[in-house]
Backbone:
């Protein structure tokens, strides 16, 4: 199978999603009515305490592109995925779908945008309703959204199931009668049933065994080719992302630290964190790997370090890194990184 | 060779024909069905398999941690020359935590949440040797320092919930190392951890095994970790070892079609964007295994001969297959 491969270059340059300056703060406690009222009047109250899960994050996904979003636990990658999928609103920043600001959309446009963006979750056991049959799980949404009528529903569900590699003969079964890999296929079928343009996959292959994972990754790639889909592929597994993505976005503690086309990022990582991730990624090789080139742990997002969030673990940190936050700057035709040192050496 | 030299040369662990079966209402589940393993002093053996291959049950069997309806029905486990399958429960209790230790996947489940780290470590020490509290505390502190926990003296007085996941796993490893055991069985200990934290722990485990001469069995589903960490690898499928050999040899020239498929399924091994080699079908249920080679229904090379159970071949690189791949075939 050697279909011509789409790259970021020949994909049409229309951002399906463009998010600018997205911020998301989860407050420790919700403000009461009096506090909200005082704030509205401009009373000088202290900033409410909370976790800044996302801090000024900007991301664009072009039509037909697969963007891999990589980061360790607590870096905000899932939060960003949920915001883009429209599951929760951000506390700051703007989100555009097909070039149109979400706040300016008419109710009908907003509804269409929501249907066009679908999400596939990590846990194929928790994300399917155990009391519904497969036919209902897949068929409910297209019926509600008027994509098929009652008469055509059965044939439509069969078609979607076939496309995702599940035998339509099993459509009267319940989720518990399937294995993990098959359930993930049901989750994918459910998302595809409303004919989305954009899929947000949040660790969608992480819970699967290696050989099953390969089957699902192949399915994602086939669907992309057949249905012209755009993906935001969220994962902690660099190997999977390297395989499937055109462009990679690396996040650390609520900020984007580097973004570049996949080949470039893996060949020439600019940010020290990306370099550490690549060095420590287990690879199948015939020689022993030297692990552990990076010290320390991910700091708590409740109390992030000053300046560059990575400086306490960075082997190259200078005084500037400790005090000044590095901006995400273009360091090549398609690549950018948020690092003072990478910026200086690029100059 | 003299007798003394022979006993000294005995590997840390020799497992022969181990069978652990679970007698359930639905039938006999043969989770481990004839497993042979040897691990030398200071050696790291990777035990690789997918979920439901019997790799964890093998690990539990080594420590005698099988509960009814499960039971070791056959085979022998010799730890430094001592037979474990026939050992009295009292003797097993003396050995566990002392000569043989286990690290589990979830450190929150192995650490007692209401006891300080110090209490748990001192308890482990005093269970096996006569030692005063102050001395035990000092040894516990050293052990914490060795696995890379910063300011171990203060951390001894902390509770498990005050540690992050990676630090908790380090504490579990420190406890396993307290008595410098002959063998540590580690069951997916880094699966729940982030890439950079996993790498730190792998680095420390590598050094510790080299320094103390402790043998290690690392149970995982991730061939990539094993290829960077282990000396030898054993690949399990449906309760049996299908291939075993030096890690570099198995990775470069897998001979069993299952190992071959497993390596092909790992994304980083493939060219970007190409289809991944996929093994058709899924891991079979233990209750409905085919009579011969368990992999035959998913195997492209299977024929009538595979209706019988193939034996493990001889040599340093063993394979359980009637139609193994040649060395020349690309991995």
Residues:
């Amino acid at each position: 199978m050697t279909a011509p491969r789409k790259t970021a270059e020949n994909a049409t340059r229309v951002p399906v999603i463009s998010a600018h300056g997205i911020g998301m703060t989860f407050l420790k406690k919700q403000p009461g009515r009096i506090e909200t009222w005082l704030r509205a009047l401009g009373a000088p109250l202290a900033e409410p305490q909370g976790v800044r899960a996302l801090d000024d994050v900007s991301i664009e996904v072009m039509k037909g592109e697969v963007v891999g979003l990589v980061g360790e636990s607590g870096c905000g990658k899932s939060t960003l995925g949920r915001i883009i999928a429209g599951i929760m609103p951000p506390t700051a920043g703007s989100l555009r779908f097909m070039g149109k600001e979400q706040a300016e959309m008419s109710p009908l446009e907003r509804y269409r945008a929501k249907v066009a963006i679908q999400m596939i979750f990590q846990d194929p056991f928790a994300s399917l309703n155990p009391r519904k049959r497969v036919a209902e799980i897949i068929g409910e949404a297209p019926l509600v959204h008027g994509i098929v009528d009652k008469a055509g529903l059965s044939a439509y569900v069969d078609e979607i199931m076939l496309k995702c590699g599940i035998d339509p003969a099993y459509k009267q079964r319940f989720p518990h009668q399937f294995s993990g890999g098959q359930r993930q296929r049901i989750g994918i079928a459910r998302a595809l049933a409303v004919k989305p343009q954009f899929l947000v996959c949040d660790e969608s292959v992480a819970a699967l065994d290696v050989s099953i994972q390969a089957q699902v990754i192949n399915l994602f790639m086939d669907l992309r080719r057949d249905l012209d889909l755009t993906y935001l592929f969220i994962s902690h597994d660099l190997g999977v992302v390297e395989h499937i993505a055109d462009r990679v976005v690396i996040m650390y503690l609520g900020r984007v630290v580097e973004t570049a086309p996949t080949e470039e990022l893996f060949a020439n990582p600019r940010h020290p964190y990306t370099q550490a991730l690549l060095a420590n990624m287990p690879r199948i090789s015939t020689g022993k790997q030297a692990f552990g080139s990076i010290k320390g742990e991910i700091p708590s997002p409740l109390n992030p370090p000053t300046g560059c969030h990575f400086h306490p673990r960075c082997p190259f940190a200078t005084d500037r890194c400790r005090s000044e936050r590095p901006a995400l700057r273009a360091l090549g035709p398609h690549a950018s990184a948020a690092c003072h040192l990478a910026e200086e050496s690029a100059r | 060779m003299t007798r003394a030299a022979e006993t000294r040369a005995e590997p840390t662990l020799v497992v022969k024909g181990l069978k652990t079966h679970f007698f359930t209402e639905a039938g006999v589940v043969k989770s481990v069905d004839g497993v042979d393993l040897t691990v030398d002093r200071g050696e790291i053996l990777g035990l690789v398999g997918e979920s439901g291959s019997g790799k964890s049950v093998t690990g539990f069997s080594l420590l005698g941690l099988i509960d009814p309806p499960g039971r070791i029905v056959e085979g022998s486990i010799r730890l430094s020359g001592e037979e474990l399958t026939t050992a009295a429960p009292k003797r097993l209790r003396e050995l566990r935590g002392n000569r043989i230790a286990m690290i589990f996947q979830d450190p929150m489940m192995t650490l007692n949440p209401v006891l300080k780290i110090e209490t748990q470590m001192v308890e482990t020490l005093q269970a096996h040797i006569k030692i005063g509290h102050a001395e035990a505390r000092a040894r516990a502190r050293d052990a914490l320092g060795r696995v890379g926990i910063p300011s171990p003296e203060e951390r001894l007085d902390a509770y498990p919930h005050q540690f992050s996941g990676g630090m908790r796993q380090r504490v579990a490893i420190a406890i396993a190392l307290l008595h410098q055991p002959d063998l540590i069985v580690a069951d997916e200990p880094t699966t729940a951890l982030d890439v950079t934290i996993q790498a730190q722990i792998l680095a420390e485990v590598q050094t510790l095994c080299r320094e103390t001469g402790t043998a290690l069995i690392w149970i995982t589903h991730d061939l990539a970790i094993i290829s960077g960490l282990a000396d030898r690898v054993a690949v399990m499928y449906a309760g049996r070892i299908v291939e075993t050999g030096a890690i570099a040899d198995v990775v470069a020239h897998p001979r069993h079609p299952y190992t071959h498929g497993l390596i092909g399924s790992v994304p980083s091994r493939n060219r970007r964007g190409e289809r991944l080699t996929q093994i058709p079908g899924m891991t079979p249920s233990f209750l409905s295994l085919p009579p011969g080679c368990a992999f035959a229904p998913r195997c492209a090379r299977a024929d009538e001969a595979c209706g019988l159970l193939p034996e493990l071949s001889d040599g340093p690189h063993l394979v359980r297959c009637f139609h193994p791949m040649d060395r020349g075939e690309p991995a």
Notes: DSSP finds twelve helices and twelve strands in chain A.
